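Protein in question kept underneath.
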Amino acid sequence: MSGSLEHAVHAPDARPPGALEGVRVIDLSRVLAGPLCTQMLADQGADVIKIEPPGGDETRTLGPPINADGDAAYFTAVNRGKRAVALDLSLAGGRDVLLRLLEDADILVENFIPGTMAKWGLDYEADLKPRFPQLIYCAISGFGQDGPLGGLPGYDAILQAMCGLMSVNGDAASGPTRIGIPIVDHLTGYTAQSGILLALYHRARSGRGQRVDATLFDTALSLLVPHAANWMHTQRTPGLLGSAHPNIAPYDRFACQDGAIFLGIVNDRQFRKFCDYIGLSSLQQDERFSTNRLRLQHRDVLRVAIEEALITRTRDAVCQDLMRLGVPVGPVNSVPEALELAHARHRGMRIDRDGYHGIGTATRLSDAPMRLGRLPPAYAQHTDEVLREAGLDDTHIATLREQGVLPRWPPSTP
């Protein structure tokens, strides 16, 4: 797959450069957290070189659905804007090529099991830092390098279970339930990006690169707001509340005549407006519902009254009317309904160009807008191009290919 995506009607050279224009990233990561991090860097103008092993990034095969080039849609979701190189780092020749690429790189991102890079003679402290003192090295892992769980592999759902997220997601009927998106992987990608940007800022002042450590374990625990604080202050173990909130009421999903809505009332003023609109003014006179603290204590009775008032009304009318009144509410949309919202298109959060379909970037800068450049690359698509830029001639590249240092796709089977 090749080509470019146009983010606006302006010609590419008419747009201002991205915030990370001129920054080069070597991306050794696979699956989700690392590739999402580097895709966000690419969206802001960084030159991201994705280096894949002989078997490729696993997400290329995690389908259907599959695109015209045979790659799973999953892969295309987190790998746009990158150039692809195939390199066997288990071979000395592959490691030599990587070191050559690092000579003009600013950032390296990897998510191998801790110890893998050291096994290859590519440990940050011992090998890379002395040779590339300005390099920012970002390691993404399940649990970090050390400690009781250090070095163990980690996956999103396992961390959701271990770190208490499943224990507060679900209801009595479902029991503890995995959150329906890989939220730990996603946030770890954002955490890694934040660490990299902090390290870039620090390097601008100090001239020195550093190691950025992002783990799924830390990220998962950081998501326990307000549940962890509630437990620390009361010693009461948080439990399953379905869609409800442990600290706010009414803050929950409710059924209307033709579908569900989510009502998010966070103060007494909003509660009064809601009661007036829905025909429940009597609740305002009931001492049990006069404050959020009291509403929490009587949430079950309150829920019954609200459900009875909403069940005769249509979803869209309730949402439109209440939002105009300043009462936070929204329809419980399906994925297609969410992506087909006119506002999703207005905000550039849905991308459909040149056969590519993706989600837009959530970070916007007024003077350095995102640049949607290359389509998600085919396996090894840019290997020769990148290696020539690094000073290797065609004879050298051909020799590396003969030696198996530059693998081909699909991988050969024994």
Observations:
- Confidence is low (pLDDT under 50) at residues 1-12.
